[in-house]
């Protein structure tokens, strides 16, 4: 499909946090930015007058926009950093240098050290982050230091050197900040147990650590050391509010391609995220037009091959929502939980947003295309001879047989046409007889359309099963319309559609747009009918007493209620007040009725 104009892209951006990328006419990325709200932020470039000359030049050169949706503003900040480092866009100045966000490293060594770093090495050490604030890192390291006594020296604490007495404890040991593993005062097993607890804290699993903090806080409070207790309380609050993990970056996930798919009747939308050492370095969504009724599996396998060739991907592992066959050289993973599942979910979100944006763009550039597609789909799904551009749906409403009414709602080109809605008060049927009521309203509706030479619908939908459908068919037979208008009945379960003379119902896919239109028709008919039924019951309840007065008609009752607002006020009104509204003759009848009684 043709690339939408820049103005249309601006109108269809999502109101979500994310990262936007500007491209020039040559397809070169010239700027990367982050946003709490993509639509507001990107639109501001084109609606505001910029004082900065560099920004004005940038806006002039923007030819197209891409974006990646993320969950939080923090995720957007991290992803922005990764993309700027990779692509070095011309108009990004702030983050082009080698500055990186801080990580917390658990060093791969005997008696591991825990410290902050801005550089990540593939040396087997474990890295947690990156963090957007050094203050957060310092707080976490202080918390860890307060909970666990860890070494800070960089000695090689091999067993042989410790046994040989090569080292002596330092001041940190005498201050109580270290347990002295350099002289063998602390065993490796106990130390590693502390390291495991620290890993849980850094992963966001604070339960055990929080319990330890609370024990400390209560002990300080019991010992009347309230300042220390308050200090521990503040650390607990920091831990409880802190989120240690990001769905964007996880250093354990490296050299991986992520693919997901969202599809409808006509197109499949495949999103691709490329992960390089824990960071998203590329996002792309491919739109595939279905030629036949291809499955999501077929479309995804086709798209994976196409995308990997286009971007020259060498990754040996991919994450996908279901099993695909890509040969023996590629490891296929279907994540079920954890960080891998978070990344796959993020890919699905981006595919869904892309699909929604394309629909919005199509509605702007080609307003009729959406309706044309649905009409063609309904014609095929419902086995009709022509597209149902004009659909009418009937529904009966009665409660315990009182005030029986029916509703007819009209859809044109798949959308409600409310000016064509009609109510029917049942005239020829006594009691709650849905079949006879349906027969009456269908006859009255199409008798009138024929008499007035109004256009007839291409499809009639009856809210009910075989019985109501049969009643409606009697009316069509009486009017000579049998076979000229398609008619179906909807059973109580919306998936069942009944056709005349066919005892076996048709079942539509629950995701089908045709079924969604039918559901909307039925719901609208039900709402419209119930609304009229309630109004009629209320009117009858109000009017009953006034209607018993001889010589008082409907128009007089309406005038009285408009003026006095209630039947009780009419009964209590003075004669001259009634005369001012309905005249002397009627006023005397009403006044005498209430006061003589």
TrEMBL record:
It comes from Aestuariibaculum lutulentum. Keywords: Cytoplasm, DNA damage, DNA excision, DNA repair, Excision nuclease, SOS response. HAMAP family: UvrC. Interacts with UvrB in an incision complex. The UvrABC repair system catalyzes the recognition and processing of DNA lesions. UvrC both incises the 5' and 3' sides of the lesion. The N-terminal half is responsible for the 3' incision and the C-terminal half is responsible for the 5' incision. It comes from the Bacteria. Pfam families: GIY-YIG, HHH_5, UvrC_RNaseH, UvrC_RNaseH_dom. This is UvrABC system protein C. Belongs to the UvrC family. The keyword Phosphoprotein does not apply. Residues 272-476 form the UvrC family homology region profile domain.
């Amino acid at each position: 499909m043709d690339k939408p104009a820049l103005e249309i892209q601006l109108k269809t951006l999502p109101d979500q946090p994310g990262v936007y990328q500007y491209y020039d006419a040559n397809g070169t990325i010239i700027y990367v930015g982050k946003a709490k709200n993509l639509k507001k932020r990107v639109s501001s470039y084109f609606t505001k007058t910029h004082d900065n000359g560099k920004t004005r030049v940038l806006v002039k050169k923007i030819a197209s926009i891409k974006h990646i949706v993320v969950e939080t503003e923090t995720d957007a900040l991290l992803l922005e950093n990764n993309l700027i480092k990779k692509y070095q866009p011309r108009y990004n100045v702030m983050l082009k240098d080698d500055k990186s966000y801080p990580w917390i490293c658990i060093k791969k060594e005997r008696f591991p050290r825990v410290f902050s770093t801005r550089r990540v090495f593939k040396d087997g050490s474990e890295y947690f982050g990156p963090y957007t604030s050094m203050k957060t890192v310092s707080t976490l390291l202080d918390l860890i230091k307060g909970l666990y006594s860890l070494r800070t020296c960089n000695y090689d604490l091999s067993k042989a050197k410790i046994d040989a007495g090569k080292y002596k404890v330092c001041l940190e040991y005498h201050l109580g900040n270290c347990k002295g593993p350099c002289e063998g005062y602390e065993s490796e097993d106990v130390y590693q147990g502390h390291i495991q607890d620290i890993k849980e804290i850094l992963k966001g699993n604070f339960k055990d650590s929080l319990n330890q903090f609370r024990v400390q806080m209560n002990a300080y409070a019991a010992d009347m050391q309230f300042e220390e207790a308050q200090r521990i309380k503040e650390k607990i609050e920091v831990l409880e509010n802190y989120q240690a993990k990001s769905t964007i970056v996880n250093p354990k996930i490296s050299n991986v391609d992520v693919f997901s798919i969202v599809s409808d009747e006509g197109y499949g939308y495949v999103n691709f995220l490329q992960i390089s050492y824990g960071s998203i370095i590329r996002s792309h969504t491919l739109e595939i037009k279905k030629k036949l009724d291809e499955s999501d599996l077929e479309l995804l396998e086709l798209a994976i091959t196409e995308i990997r060739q286009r971007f020259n991907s060498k990754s040996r592992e991919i994450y996908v929502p279901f099993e695909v066959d890509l040969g023996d050289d590629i490891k296929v993973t279907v994540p079920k939980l954890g960080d891998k599942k978070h990344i796959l979910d993020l890919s699905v979100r981006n595919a869904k947003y892309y699909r929604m944006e394309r629909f919005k763009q199509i509605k702007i550039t080609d307003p009729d295309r959406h309706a044309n597609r649905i009409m063609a789909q309904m014609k095929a799904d419902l086995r009709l001879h022509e597209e149902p551009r004009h659909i009418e749906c009937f529904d009966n409403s009665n409660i315990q047989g009182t005030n029986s009414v029916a509703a007819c709602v009209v859809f044109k080109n798949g959308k409600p046409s409310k000016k064509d809605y009609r109510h029917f008060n049942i005239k020829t049927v006594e009691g709650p007889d849905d079949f006879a009521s349906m027969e009456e309203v269908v006859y009255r509706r199409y008798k009138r359309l024929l008499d007035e030479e109004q256009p007839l619908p291409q499809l009639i939908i009856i809210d009910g099963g075989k019985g109501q459908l049969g009643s409606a068919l009697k009316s069509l037979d009486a009017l000579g319309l049998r076979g000229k208008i398609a008619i179906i009945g909807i059973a109580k379960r919306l998936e069942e559609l009944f056709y005349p003379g066919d005892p076996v119902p048709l079942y539509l896919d629950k995701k089908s747009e045709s079924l969604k239109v039918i559901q909307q028709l039925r719901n609208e008919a039900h709402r419209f009918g119930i609304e009229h039924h309630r109004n009629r019951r209320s009117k009858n309840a109000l009017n009953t007493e006034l209607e018993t007065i001889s010589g008082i008609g409907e128009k007089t009752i309406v005038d009285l209620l408009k003026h006095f607002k209630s039947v009780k006020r009419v009964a209590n009104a003075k004669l001259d007040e009634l005369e001012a509204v309905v005249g002397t003759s009627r006023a005397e009848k009403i006044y005498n009725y209430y006061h003589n009684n």
